[in-house]
Amino acid sequence: MRDPERTRRAILSAAFDLVYRQGFRATSVNEIVAKAGVTQGAFFHYFATKNDLGFALTEELLRDMILDRWIKPLSAYNNPVQGIARRFRKLMEATTNEEMGLGCPLNNLTQEMSSIDPVFRDKLRGVLQLWIKETERYLKKAQAGGYMRPEVDAMSAAEFIVMMEEGSWALAKVLGERSAYRSAYDGFRKYLESISTDGGSLRAHY
Amino acid sequence: MRDPERTRRAILSAAFDLVYRQGFRATSVNEIVAKAGVTQGAFFHYFATKNDLGFALTEELLRDMILDRWIKPLSAYNNPVQGIARRFRKLMEATTNEEMGLGCPLNNLTQEMSSIDPVFRDKLRGVLQLWIKETERYLKKAQAGGYMRPEVDAMSAAEFIVMMEEGSWALAKVLGERSAYRSAYDGFRKYLESISTDGGSLRAHY
Questions:
Q1: Do A175 and B110 count as a contact with CB atoms less than 8 A apart?
Q2: Which of A3, A94, A112, B180 would you label with B89, given CA atoms 20 to 30 Å apart?
Q3: Secondary structure (DSSP) of A81-126
Q4: How far apart are CA A41 and CA B61, in angstroms?
């Protein structure tokens, strides 16, 4: 692999898989280079330390993964509140039992590294804040389009929505039961209905 | 300390404080006995291994803490759904900044130990299931008293409620901002209103 960008991506992608399955501290640089099929020299050319790799994992892969999973699909809906409900259901249905047992990669890394390393904490927090901010942007769009009640505070609602999204995956992981997603979805929908205007009601669409 | 029950409780209580602040694996038996003011011999008289102490911590202290914080206060309310909302607000207001930074002790231990040790996982999961089960019991009471809509599935609603309770503390910890509790509370209340009957509406009480 002589394409530098491709080598770097191969390292990040191998690291993502290993860290998702074993945790960051339990994953060694040796394992990452073996899985990526690159030399240690190549690794340290791109990342001065294992922590630097972890920061890139957070600010590039995890950030993109969150936007791809939770935010980008919303652009397909005229009513973003309906989009939030439908996208949740789709993600819930697409999650394999293995992924359910592993949980959310952002949440896992946050739980493992935030209290140990303040730089990690700030970068992980940054991804969560971006997730909230982008959700808020879509809620404001919903409000402007008359789908969400005008008295609802979009920022506060966005924090609550992201909390439910993360919380649902965390609960299913801990309980080890798919039914937890269904309970989360039912409650989530009730909440989304409560912030919708009559014209933007979700009920008609289900 | 020659009262055996008191010695055992002193060990558990010292362990709780240390584990809450540093994590289970980072806490040594030496630190626990020093903080409890007992000998290593006394420790190993009550707990054959450090893991056995961790199991007792989960099944006794964490279990009681969850029941004391989240379940027992509900008995004071005629309308348990209103009780759930008020108790959440009280806990949110009583949480210090230090506790906010440390998060929920049950959630922390679950995140740290569940994927590593299946015995720990089962015991921690048992506490979470008890929390859900007891919440369900109060929701059924609310339904029988005409406060909660009859079509709401009490078990599913209980899972969602506990997910929001755990999720709120997790979000505030990660964001490092008290405003996260307020966002969680606002959303939580909207949800609780949506499962209340008109006669059991929460609005009148705020």
A1: no
A2: A112
A3: HHHHHHHHHHHHHH--HHHHHH--HHHHHHHHHTTT-HHHHHHHHH
A4: 50
Burial B99-125 (b: 16+ CB within 10 A, else e): ebebbbbbbbbbbbbbbebeebbebbb
- Residues on chain B touching A114 (C-beta within 8 angstroms): 174
Residues B46-94: pLDDT tens digits?
A: 999 999 999 999 999 999 999 999 999 999 999 999 999 999 999 999 9
**8 Å CB contact of A183 and B156:** yes
3-state secondary structure of B199: coil
Residue whose structure tokens are 């009471």 = B141
Three-state SS for B8? helix
Residue pair B191/A194 in contact (Cβ under 8 Å)? The answer is: yes
A51 and A27 Cβ atoms separated by less than 8 Å:
no
CB neighbours of B71 closer than 8 A, spacing ≥ 6?
A: B131, B134, B135, B138
CA B200, distance to chain mean position in Å, is 26
Assembly ipTM? 0.90
Q: Residue B35 belongs to what H/E stretch?
A: helix B29-36
Closest Cα in chain A, distance from residue B1 (Å): 35
- In this complex, which of A159, A160, A171 lies closest to B159 when CB atoms are compared? A171
Tell me which residue of B80, B74, B75, B73 sits closest to B145, measured CA to CA: B80
Q: Do A128 and B174 touch (CB under 8 A)?
A: yes
